[in-house]
Amino acid sequence: MEGDKHASAASQRQVLLADKQDLDGLGLEPGTIKENLTIEGLAVMELEPGTRLRVGKRAVLEVNKVCEPCFRMDEIREGLRLQLDGRRGMMTTVVEGGPIQVGDPIAVLEREELVS
């Protein structure tokens, strides 16, 4: 994401995806937990590392790990860190950049085996 502090090729925290259903269940507006993209209609927390997603026409993201909620979530709302355990979202890296906008479709492309 242009201008984001994690916008480095070396970072595994490039784009955070959060599930709108989880946010709704906690009474949170999109963007509240500092996610880059709020996803609707796709179970974000069920995506396995290595899964690739096409967002919009060109952008491709690869899921790499669960984003564990940190102490900063309690700065948003006391107790939010615990409430987000297991549902803060998934971290992704950018495989192919491209413009995205609100309402763009997201498609699951494939799952790449990750090498440890």
Write the layout of secondary structure elements.
Blueprint: E1 15-19, H1 20-25, E2 37-39, E3 51-55, E4 59-66, H2 72-76, H3 80-83, E5 90-96, E6 106-111
Parallel strand pairs: 1-2
Antiparallel strand pairs: 1-5, 3-4, 3-6, 4-5
Structural account:
By secondary structure, the chain is α+β, with helices and mostly antiparallel strands. The chain has one domain: PK beta-barrel domain-like (M1 Pyruvate Kinase, Domain 3). It has three helices and six strands. Strands 2-1-5-4-3-6 form a six-stranded mixed beta sheet. Strand 1, helix 1 and strand 2 form a beta-alpha-beta unit. The longest helix is centred in the first third of the chain and has 6 residues. The radius of gyration is 14 Å and the shape is globular. It starts with 14 loop residues before the first strand and ends in a 5-residue tail after the last strand. The mean pLDDT is 89.
